[in-house]
User: Fold these one by one.
Assistant:
Number 1:
Amino acid sequence: MACPTCSSDNPEVASYCHRCGTSLRAGDASRTASYAVQSAEGVTQFALISTVMPHTSRRSADNYRWAMILSGVLILGATALGLLPIAIAAAAFLVPLAYLVYIDDVNLWEEAPAAVVVGLFLATGALSVLVSLFFFDWVFDAQWASFAGGGRARGGIGSMSFPALLIFAVLLPVVAEVAKNLFAVLLASRPQFDDMIDGLTFGVAAGTAYAAFETVVVYSSVFTAQDFRTTSGIASWLVVVVNVMVIKSLIYGTATGIAVAAYSGKGEAYDGFTPAYFASFGLAVGANIAYWLGVRLMAYLPFGNALGLIWGFVILAALVVKIRMMLQTALLEAAVEAAAKGDDYDNKRSTYVEAYCPECENLMLANASFCIVCGTSVRSSSRQARSAMGMRAVPAGAPAVDFADPVDPVHPDAPADPAAPSTDGGDK
Ligand SMILES: [Zn+2]
Ligand SMILES: [Zn+2]
């Protein structure tokens, strides 16, 4: 059966075109029910893990989900006990550290050591400390004092300082977004990280790192307080901890992820500072401003902290859906373009010998960019997922052989023999 989009020949049983990912089932041309990264999910579904960690498979995503939930419960427990220094520090770094583990775990870039991402994390963190100290301590400390402690205790919205609102809810998000983008964009412009998923990953790593270090600066008084244990205002501290642990961290991460993904662009080679990048950068800034304006103004309402939390969740959900629509379009459009170049075109992102789909374990066709059964893009599969499949073929007790190596769908240029010395580039 010929694909209606790219005219590639597909087996009669195919549900998705192996070259361009078009759904071959009748009446499903737009593929909105099947996300190219995780085909069992819809495109507009609010699924956090598969969005910010696109290289996880359904199984490994479950491990991350449970590890995060367990850590989150422990951190809330520490908050309830009033152990604020521990709770705030752990809440600030939970998401960025989990993200570093994920990047190391899926072994995203074999040729690049995890040190690259740790460097991005620390460099962005250092910038975050500088920007945060500048705003909260060095220059605008008097204006900040008019916010700290919540607005309601200070006699209603009339007491709010409008200049302070502009400084912390508009000016700071603009400056912060530049700082979050700086090193991530630098990495995304390297030729070995030109994929949109790479750009997204760098953006999320930089954004969450920035959030963590900013949280530490903003709540530094917690760490220098005389009493290690706090007994008053535990309920509002619980809301604060949930906010910095989940909402703020992920809003910063996903917003910057969108901007840096737009810098990478679809297909091979990065797009750079195009109008699409500046539009996405503006979206990232806008999401941060909307978040902080809402949080600051709602602090003057009854249950303001909790309302701010809900407001942040709404913005986060919108950012997550935006990323998924962006990746869906990019993966499908890039595949159509690659397929249009014909069979001779050496697409380094597709399989070159038979491999098994990491999601549904069916055999993939040669030169495939998508699984014909479930429609998952091979660009979203991880070495982790592939070696997990290889491991199951090894009898218990047998030496661990990485079956993923001879059939590496993402890097077919890699040497077929795991023992062979690695060649750089491996251009044929
Ligand atoms: Zn096609
Ligand atoms: Zn599949």
Number 2:
Amino acid sequence: MADSIDQPDPADRIATVMTRRARTDFLLPEQQASAAEDRPLSIGHGQTNSQPATVAAMLRLLEVRPGDRVLDVGSGSGWTTAILGDLVGSAGEVDGVERVEALVSRSRAALSAQMWEGMPMTWASIHVADPAVLGLPDRAPFGRILVSAEAAEVPVTLIDQLTPDGIMVIPVRGEMLRIIRTGPDRSDHTTTRHGSFRFVPLIEG
Ligand SMILES: C[S@@+](CC[C@H](N)C(=O)[O-])C[C@H]1O[C@@H](n2cnc3c(N)ncnc32)[C@H](O)[C@@H]1O
């Protein structure tokens, strides 16, 4: 049976981190007054900062642990990259990747202002996407992959970038999927379905 997307995180760690990494810090000035509203907000360039309830649901499915290496595909405003950076802590690593260069510049500035236990979050960074390449294969493998844009099909190239026991959470054709790698081959994985969600499209190729 598919896990419920509403299952609460036992320690409410995700809610705590989402509050600590204030959404306001990653929004355009004209959107900051709306930060507490549970809806997507424009970040310009036709893109959005995701709805907080959706981010929380995806993070619960992703089961990020301290020390994990995480890929954040479609890092947009940088908010999810910062949240993931907090969840993995200084022993982990987070690579955000975003195809809109103007968003990369802005999100890097917002991320560089984030402090973690008195130090900058140097283990989280944001890369400009190569239009011909999905994800960051040169930096793979990742224990966790979060995709915040909707794919038409499950991208096998991202399954290739998971560790043999890694987890990817990705919306595909309007449905949230959790893909768990179960072995060394890309075909070694299980897929569970976790409800309907709308996202901007994942641009491939
Ligand atoms: C919903 S938005 C931003 C979500 C982000 N986590 C946030 O809350 O700000 C999804 C982003 O995915 C980006 N995107 C789409 N296709 C991409 C690709 N192939 N590689 C990297 N980023 C991509 C879009 O430009 C957009 O900024």
